[in-house]
Amino acid sequence: MNAAPADQIRLLDLQALDTRLGQLAHKRKSLPEHAELQALEADLTQHRDLLVAAQTEESDTAREQTKAEQDVDQVRQRAVRDQQRLDSGAGMSPKDLENLQHEVASLAKRQGDLEDVVLEIMERRESAQERVTELTGRVASVQAKVDDATARRDAALGEIDAEAASVAKERELVAGSVPADLLGLYDKLRVKEGGVGAARLFQRRCEGCRQELAITELNEVRAAAADKVVRCENCSRILVRTSESGL
């Protein structure tokens, strides 16, 4: 393939732009905020799960407390009724009065036991409420960190994307000035050779593979016409000759 030396040199400009686009794409994927957000979101999910569990426990103990308080109230009301009957003694035999006294005493003990149960439940509910408050604060704290990291990531992505758009536009202009056949070869090699399709020959060394040309290859390059598109024997990339090639 033949191409004007100026067109070949433009490949170096094109390569520099493609290299920058590759760097920006890598930078976009490897922003530290990505890993930070992944860790924070895992932490947030864990704390939210713990919060839901604590809220469920608090809700369950609240229902348990209501039921226990209702049991106490029922025993208390029954004890009041029995005490009123005992105090009046109307139409009751001594045996009935004795049985009623035993029942009142039994109800008093039952009420005391149930009130102890209510206190125990209230303590558990208070503990659950404290846990809910603590975890609510933790969730809010982690969420704030997530929001901050998200804002920093989005700002960084915005800068990267803006630069990438500018570089892509410049690449389009440069690519448009390169002959189609030369551009096609360059693009094919760029895909095949890890993003580098053309490299400068600098001081007898290919800057694509960093290998110095063998003497026979160097002589062939020296003998090649200025418009001949030469390739590196080591990496197959297009070798672009300049005044600094050492020929």
TrEMBL record:
Where, if anywhere, are coiled coils annotated? 97-145
Which residues belong to any copy of the C4-type zinc ribbon domain? 205-239
Q: Where is the segment annotated Disordered? A: 56-75
Q: Alphabetically list the UniProt keywords.
A: Coiled coil
Specify the domain of life of the species encoding this protein.
Bacteria
Residue limits of the CT398-like coiled coil hairpin domain? 14-194
Skewed-composition ranges (Basic and acidic residues): 60-75
Listed name of the protein: Zinc ribbon domain-containing protein
**Organism expressing this protein natively:** Streptomyces gamaensis
